[in-house]
Task: structure prediction
Amino acid sequence: MKKLVRKAKKHCIGLLLGSRCGSLPFHNEEHTMNVYENVLKISIYEKMDMEEMEPVLLAALFHDTGNASVFAGHENFSATEANKFLAAQSYPPEKIDLVIDCIKATRMPQRPKNSYEEIICDADLFHLGTKLYSSRNKLLRKEWAKFLNTEYSDAAWDSLNIEFLEQHRFHTRYGQEILKPVKMENLKELKERHEKV
Result:
């Protein structure tokens, strides 16, 4: 288990650093490693053992590798990359399916169908419920402006994010108990700032 995850980590970091992801402000190697760590935190809180969390950890490592080639629909590219790598490692096909389903569950809007998918969804949007929300959000705005040619005025950006935070929900116990209260504070601050504009 540990050996495969280590190998996958090395493979995915190499992929991300060697592609345009190396220069993306948000969807880069740091984000991937954060999601990986978040999966660990949430899984431990949910009382999963290492073997149970393995497919979700692998999914976390691969979930954004598709960004190396495309933004829209990158989850499908990420799933193909994971499938190729894991099949070459003789990983059991039913576990590969779990990994692929977890990767695809991170597509927006999130609609997780089981506890594995709930964990990766919350791990991917973990920052919404932390004090790092504002700084991470600035990186995302920068990325969209530079790579998607999508520019927003401050008011439009705040409005978009207020709507996103209001529609989003955490799925795991960790998300509900630990992340949601901070997310609500972040939403309150956003709304207060938006009203002053």
Remarks:
- The chain has one domain: 2-196.
